[in-house]
Amino acid sequence: MDKSGRPVHQHAIADEMRKVKSEMQHPDALNYVMDGLRKNATIELYQSGCDEKMVKAVTGRSGV
User: Fold this and answer.
1) How many Å separate Cα 20 from the centre of its chain?
2) Does residue 62 contact residue 56 with C-beta atoms inside 8 Å?
3) Three-state SS string across 27-53, please?
4) pLDDT single digits (tens) 19-64
5) Of all helices (H) and strands (E), which one includes residue 14?
6) By the 8 A CB rule, do 64 and 46 touch?
7) Mean pLDDT, to the nearest integer, of 9-23?
């Protein structure tokens, strides 16, 4: 969500990720992709006890 509470567009997130990756020291940082982060977030949400409805609301997907 942005500061106004509206959903953030995927391109804004991708732009921010490019900035962060360019500053990372890890040699593989430029290979990190958004889908990998979404999968990790999905796993973390399920492991923390969120139900499928909550996971889908956060990630836009219903499963891993």
Assistant:
1) 13
2) yes
3) CCHHHCCHHHHHHHHHHHHHHCCCCHH
4) 988 898 888 888 877 777 778 888 999 999 999 999 888 887 655 5
5) helix 10-23
6) yes
7) 85
